[in-house]
Design brief:
Order of helices and strands: EEEEEEE
Shape: globular
Oligomer: single chain
Number of domains: 1
Low-confidence stretches: none
Number of helices: 0
Structural class: mainly beta
Largest sheet: 4 strands, antiparallel
Number of strands: 7
Helix content: under 10%
């Protein structure tokens, strides 16, 4: 079944993982209720796959051990307007 699912990514700054069905596509991300949420378009019949992400604040260094990365989106905390940037680790 193909659906949009919401995943609670917690409140990480730095590296974190999520388990989503293989081939899931990120649609949106936001910060609310003191946590980060990611919405993916998924095919629930596909096997689960662990994906690695990096969430960093503006002006935070990206070190070489974190690469290669693909930029996905920017998340704004509405309480303080802090901008965080979501990347996926490609290996």
């Amino acid at each position: 079944m193909k659906v949009v699912k919401r995943y609670d990514a917690g409140k990480p700054i730095g590296l974190f993982t999520l388990t989503v069905p293989e081939g899931a596509t990120l649609l949106s991300a936001s910060f609310s209720q003191n946590t980060n949420f990611l919405w993916f378009f998924v095919d629930t019949s596909r096997p689960d796959h662990v994906r690695k992400f990096l969430l960093i604040k503006t002006d935070e260094e990206i070190t070489s051990d974190m690469k290669p990365l693909q930029f996905l989106t920017t998340i704004t905390n509405p309480a303080n307007n802090v901008m965080s940037h979501l990347f996926e680790r490609l290996r």
